[in-house]
Amino acid sequence: MQHRIIVLGAGYTGAIAAGRLARRLHRDEVAITLVNAEPDFVERVRMHQLAAGQDLTPRPLSEMFEGTGVELRIAEVTGVDADRRTVTVTEKDGVTGQLPYDTLVYALGSGWNDQGVTGTAEHAYEIASRPGALRLRERLAGLAAGQPVVVVGAGLTGVEAATELAEARPDLAVALVARGGLGDWLSDKGRAHLRKVVGELGITVHENTAVTEVRADRVTIADGGTVPAAVTVWTTGFAVHPIARATTLETTGTGQIVVDRTMRSLSHPDVYVVGDAAMAMGPGDKPLRMSCASGTPAAWQAADAVAARLTGGKLPHAPVRYFNQCISLGRKEGLIQYVTADDRAVDATLTGRLAALYKELVCKGAVWGVANPTLGLPARRRHVVGETAGTGTTVGAAV
Predict the structure, then answer these.
(1) Residue ranges of the FAD/NAD(P)-binding domain (predicted)?
(2) Which end of the chain has a smaller Cβ tally under 10 Å, C or N?
């Protein structure tokens, strides 16, 4: 019988893991099923562009995985029983079913995090998902000149959203609310460039400011003052999909699944976790942050570890590390902040038009990586060894 591998989620990490597994293992010995709620691959790193009115290239998953041997299942994951090794899914027509697995790759990712701030869920807009970005796009299209748009959160997502909107709609009054200093995680050169671009785009910045309430026409800040907002865009971080917390998998207080260096669950060795859902340690014993920069190599690591354990091969030991932070500042400007292995800014940066082109290449490369999970290297499919399917036994469980 075939060893059943189910991959949950076809974002960057899930799609890469599924494709890489298909290139590592013989099709007649494994059955790889990729479950995703939407039929298209979503370029999450471009959601600020979509919200600003730009049209993105459709990328049907059926075309991306054609001929790979990966079975695509368009359904919503509604439950995981990690002890019985089953996944509950609900199809578009409302029919519910269960999928048994021998190995599970959990890549359900994350969504926006309203941080429990009053009024956020009711009045704010998010760009962590395509539906959210499209909803914001529609609302922005209806705004008249001069109306205020407030972006709350000045991390990578917030900075990209504010600059994209300000460039696309110079007729709007765009403001950015930062809990700390603007770009305080960047190098001196990086901060200076960010401030320069933000100033040129006419963005008003409220630094060292916490938002305590969101209303339909304004946000309230910690000192009791208000900032007018016809539209509030909330970008204060991500919250992982809630399903993991409801399972018997070992999770953190944030709901992330605790894994080892091969992205394998510490509590359930037949489960691997990639992307934002994983609590994995990186260089310097620091948790990897939720990002494409760490998610993609983690997906390679997990897929190669699954393949190695199934085929009796050598486990991968390449560390997941950081090299740079790529920030788009509209379509004409960018900032590439080079960092240490554990994600601390160094003096070196790339700025301006060249940085914008660099970031565009990174975005295109991320999509290419989904369709080419082994980075163009020849496929090296290996044979599965031992009892693998239908027996409840995971090959190499003791490795």
Answers:
(1) 4-303
(2) N
